[in-house]
Design goal:
single chain; alpha/beta; seven-stranded parallel sheet; globular
């Protein structure tokens, strides 16, 4: 039976991915910023799926604490890094502290998780990093986010070489229609939908399907998968 760790799985796509793997019979470990929240969501997922789910506290903004937080994970076959912080940060009124937190989370934090777990990964393990379409479609206030999501692609390049034969991929979704960010925000979803060639937005299930492909296909490696419906 395989073990999957989903970092940032207390809501949204991370939670849906954890649920999908629990239904597949995997041992699932999820993380949240607090032990209480992670444990509560783990219990919810066990009740929903009938699977085995464990919750751990892990804070990507404090990379020096990550190795200790992950000590209970003795073996892992799949590692998914979804967790992030949101940052609308205009250069005209730049919040340096907020920018540093975002960059630390998705560059140093993601890498620290992989470094801590590498000795516990088998040769056929795989790692999936989440980026986002801000890397290709910047907007006012996205300077740090655009740069960080572009850096995720750089991490895929170097980690796929350093960790070989462990596979490393990234997924870059556009707006996800039923995600907590989009639900109730019709202005955002309609604007995002009009930019796609399919005239539809991904659901969390669509994104989970993409995640499973990247995690499980044995020759999917060093891929940056865009799930955006094609951009007009």
């Amino acid at each position: 039976m395989s073990t999957i760790l989903v970092v940032g799985a207390t809501q949204g796509t991370g939670r849906e991915l954890a649920a999908a793997y629990a239904r597949r019979g995997a041992d699932v470990v999820i993380t949240g910023r607090t032990r209480e929240r992670a444990a509560a969501v783990a219990r919810e997922l066990e009740a929903e799926t009938g699977g085995a789910v464990t919750g751990l506290a892990l804070d990507l903004t404090r990379p020096a604490t990550i190795a200790t937080a992950l000590e209970p994970v003795r073996h892992v076959d799949r590692v998914v890094l979804v967790g992030m912080v949101r940052d609308m940060n205009s250069v005209r009124d730049y919040d340096v502290e907020a920018a540093a937190v975002l960059a630390t989370t998705k560059v140093v934090g993601y890498t620290a998780v992989v470094a801590a777990l590498l000795p516990r990964m088998p040769a056929d393990a795989s790692v999936l990093l989440f980026g986002g379409m801000a890397k290709d479609l910047p907007y006012p206030g996205s300077t740090t986010l655009t740069a960080v999501n572009s850096a995720v692609q750089g991490l895929v390049r170097t980690l796929s070489v350093e960790l070989a034969p462990v596979r490393v991929n990234s997924l870059h979704p556009w707006a996800i229609e039923d995600s907590p960010v989009c639900v109730g925000n019709e202005r955002l979803t309609e604007s995002a939908r009009k930019m796609t060639l399919t005239r539809r937005l991904a659901t969390m299930k669509d994104v989970v399907d993409g995640c499973v492909f990247l995690l499980e296909n044995p020759v999917a490696n060093a891929i940056d998968l865009k799930l955006n419906g094609g951009m007009a």
